[in-house]
Amino acid sequence: MAFRLEEDPIGPETQALALSELRETEENKKNGIEALRKLLEGDKTLFFNTEDDFLVIFLRPCKFYPDSAFALMKRVAEFKEKNAALLENLMPQDERAAFIESNVVNVLKGRDHKGRRVLLVNAGKSWDPSKVSADQLFRIFYLIHEAAMREPETQVRGVVVIMDFDGLTMKQVLALSPTFSMRLLTFIQDAMPLRLKEVHIVKQPFIFNMVWKIFTPFIREKLNSRMYFHGSKMASLHKHLDPSHLPENYGGKLPAIDYTSADWYPVIIENEDKVKEWNSYGLRKN
Question: Which residues form the CRAL-TRIO domain (predicted)?
């Protein structure tokens, strides 16, 4: 099964989900797009694409309330500006070595039993911070989110994250600084136009408590309610993610993972025109 971005329109099943969870009717969609476009055209500080499909990226996670989508776009622009040192003109080639040579961030080939994309972060022994810094890790997350938000299916069904801390040592703990934690959590909670449905922490050793203390001050109630800690108990993970859609590595019925980010890096490269386009959006330059 080859990696590809699924940019096809949503089918009847996903349309039904969009209606029940996101208020997505033809009328709400049409009105939302028109109102959001007007808000953008009347604002002299923001520059974004105003085509229908692009505006829907922001309207879906905001349940088609244009004011909320506009506020999200503002936060996205402000986040990009505040983190320009890491994000300005960021292109996939800039992190080619991290994608090709490390196996820190992976995306499961198939979706989970609810049709959600599954992002896998190997934050334990697989991660050597001397080769891939925490800043690079964040840049990889950012590039992946740019790809995911282009998928209509993912816009509706959302994303699940598995954070695997197997073999975590002080080397990784020291790399997960409060600065990194605050940046990552601000991004997730304020400036990411995707529905983050669940975060699963697995195989974490006792030393993980030190990491958790760094992250805790920045986690708000909504995200906190979507975080689950399983340790080595895969049966606990399976209460949320059906084993029929999980690889053997996590007690699932699918074959063990035999691919890395190197295998899906070409998909990111194929979409570099969209990345370049995204880089041009945000606060207008005076």
Answer: 96-258
12-82 CATH, one of 1.10.1200, 1.10.8, 1.20.58, 1.10.3210 = 1.10.8
Q: Does domain 94-270 have CATH number 3.40.50.11930?
A: no
For residue 203, the 8-state DSSP code is S
Q: Where are the alpha helices (DSSP H) in the chain?
A: 12-22, 26-41, 52-59, 66-82, 84-87, 96-101, 134-148, 152-157, 170-175, 178-190, 208-215, 221-224, 234-237, 261-270, 272-279
pLDDT reported for residue 3: 81
Read off the DSSP letter of residue 42.
T
Asked whether the whole model's pTM tops 0.85, one would answer: yes
Query: Residue 104's closest CA among 82, 129, 79?
Result: 129
233, β-bridge pairs:
none
Q: How many CB atoms lie within 10 A of CB 15?
A: 14
Domain ranges of the chain: 12-82, 94-270
Q: How far apart are CA 1 and CA 41, in angstroms?
A: 42
Give per-residue pLDDT as tens, 158-170.
999 999 999 999 9
Is residue 267 within 8 Å of 111, Cβ to Cβ? no
Phi, psi of 169, deg, nearest 5: -130, 180
